[in-house]
Amino acid sequence: METIDAKGLACPTPIIKAKKALRSNSEIAVEVDDEEAAENLEKMAQQLQYDFAKEDLGSGVTKVTIKKTTSKAASAADYNGSSITNMMSVTQTAEESTVQKIEPALVNNIRLSDGYIVAIGTNVMGHGDDQLGKILIKSFIYSLTEQDVLPQYVLFYNGGIKLLLADSESVPDLKKLASLGVQILACGTCVDYYNVKGQLQVGEITNLYHILELMRTAQRVVRP
Fold this sequence. Notes:
2 domains; elongated; DsrEFH-like
């Protein structure tokens, strides 16, 4: 059984490490020192319909053991899909009922879904504290790189443009997405407004009409 030391790691890193380990192991143990991380590992196991157990190791450390069950285990891809639906704002298009479902294509051993788009309109995630919002958006983009099914497009407009600039901590993750076949597109009007033309570190400039058409015809649009 593989044991993963995830102590001191921020969400969602313990989940990502556990999911990766479960690809090649039937049973794993994850040690965390954060109660929320332990609860998230339990939720993942429940959604995958895997057996799990918790053990208090003392000094604030919890060991979560997760074991695959052959008769009722859901796939990791199912978990990825449900986590997107449960955790993010998802919009189904009006045309979805008439559009045939498109199976994700395999690109670099990663499934790329051309019915799935991520639209980012700000350099923070959520409302409240902007510093927390910056931490969340960075974690969100990193988590995208670890999904088994990737979006075909990630669209940036308004303040989201700032995530494509040199001082953005998300640039390496966005470059990784681009290398996996995800198309990174930036609103040209927004680039001009912020006067950052020629400063984008990743992606291509497009127009708002194109962004609208992509969002209108997508089967699923996720907005963090």
